[in-house]
Amino acid sequence: MNIRSEKKILFAILVLGLLVRLGLIMFFDDDHRLFHDGDSAEYLALAENLRLGHGFTWDKSAPFQPNSFRTPIYPGFLFLVRFLFGSYQAALVIQSVLIVLSAYFLYLIGREYFSRKIALWNAGIFLFAPFSLNVSVKFLTQTLFLSLLILSIWSWVQFLKNQRNKYFLLTSILLPVLALTRPIAQYIVPVFILSLACSVYFKRINLSLKQFLKLGFIMCATFAAILTPWLIRNYNLFGHFKLSSITPYQLYFYDVPDAYALANDISYEEAGGILKAEIGSHSSVSNFQDYMKFAQGDILMSRSRYYFSAFPAYFLVSRVKNMAKFFLRDGIRYWYNDFSRSSRSDVNIYKIITFKEKNTFPYLVAIERLFLAALFVGLILSALCFFKEDIITKSILFFFFLLLLYFSFFSGIMASAGFRIIVEPIFSLVGLNGLSKLKGKKLNLW
C-alpha cells in the first residue's frame, strides 16, 4: 500500500465514522432513547443548574444541595456547549468530532510503533465497534474522557520519543483533567511514571536518577496543583479532602454483590437485593441517593471491608473474572437495552450452535464476542512475544499493558463495565499486534 492510498483509506474511515454518528444524531432526533443512559440525567441536571446559577448540584428544586458524587469537567463541558450553541444536543456533535480526532491520534500511534496496516485496521475497528458507536452519541463522560486519554497517550509517547518538555507538560496537565472528568483516573500518575522508568531501564531514553526523580516530582506536583481547588471545595462543603464520594458507593453496590453471589451460589441480582436490605439496617437513610454522599461513605466502606474479610478468595475470583469480562463483554447488548429489548439479551450457546435460535441478536453477540476473544488472544500473544520486540516497541507495549491493567482493575470499583470504550482502542491495537505474529505461522516466543 502506497502512502497516497493509505491517506485516502484513512480519510474515508474518519469521514465515514463522523457521518455515521451525525446520521444517528439526526435519525434519533425525535427519539432520545439512544442519547440517554442512567447517568445522563444527572450530568444534564448538573449542567443545567450551573447555567441557572444554582451551583454544582443535580437537585431539581431548592435548597439545591451541592453534589459530591460527580466531578466537574463533563458537566462543565455540557454547560459550555449549552452556553455557546444554545442546545445540549450540540455536545453530541462535538463528541462525534472528538471520537474521530481520537481515531486519528490512534492511527498516528499505531503507524509509528506497529505498522500502517495495523494502524488503519485499529482506527476502523475503534470507530465502528458497537461500544464506540453507542457511547459516543450519549450524554456520558466516556467520549470526553477517551479523547483526553488518547491525547495524553499520544503526547506521552511523543515525549518518550524526543524528550521535548512541551509534551511532558501537556501530559502532566491532561492527567489531572482526566481525574476531574472521571475519578477512575485519580491514581493514574504511577502508570506514566512506571512507563518512564521502563523506558530508562530499556535505555530508550537517557536520564540520570536525579532527572528521573525531578520529572516524577513535576508530574505529581502538577497533578496535585490542578486537583487541589476541587479537593478544597469538597473539604469546605463536606469535610472530606477527596475527589468524589463515588468509591464507597461503587464498591458496596457493584463489587461486593458479585463476590457475595459467588460465595453463596446465588445470582448477582439476589445478592444485590440482600446487600441493599442489609445496609438499610445499618443506616437511617430513607432516600437511596443519600448513599452517594460522603456522609454514608464510612458505613459503606466498613461493610465492604467486612465482606472482603469474610470472602477474600471470592473477591479475588470476582476481580479476575470481571477483568476478563472487561475485554470480552459485547457492546451490541447496549443497543438492544437502549430500546427496551432486554428480553432478547439472553444468549443460549446451544441454540446458537445448533441454529435453533430465532432472534438475530444472540448471533450478533456471538460474532462480536468471538472477535473480542480473537483480540484477547492477540493481547496474550503480544505479552508472550514481549521480550522478542525491539527496545522502542517494548517500552510502548509495557506502557499499554499498564494502562489496560489499570482500567480493567478499577473498572468495577470506580466505573461501569461500559467504561471499556476508553481502552478499547488500546486493547485492539495490542491485540492486532499480537495477531500479526501469526502471519509467519511458526510463532517464536523467545
TrEMBL record:
Keywords: Cell membrane, Glycosyltransferase, Membrane, Transferase, Transmembrane, Transmembrane helix
Pfam families: PMT_2 (PF13231)
GO biological process: lipopolysaccharide biosynthetic process
Compartments, record wording: Cell membrane
Topology term for the membrane: Multi-pass membrane protein
Organism domain of life: Bacteria
GO terms for MF: pentosyltransferase activity
All residue ranges annotated as the Glycosyltransferase RgtA/B/C/D-like domain in the record: 73-224
Signal sequence extent: none
A GO cellular-component term linked to this record: plasma membrane
Transmembrane segments: 9-28, 73-106, 139-157, 187-205, 212-232, 370-387, 399-423
Listed name of the protein: Glycosyltransferase RgtA/B/C/D-like domain-containing protein
Organism: Candidatus Yanofskybacteria bacterium RIFCSPLOWO2_01_FULL_42_49
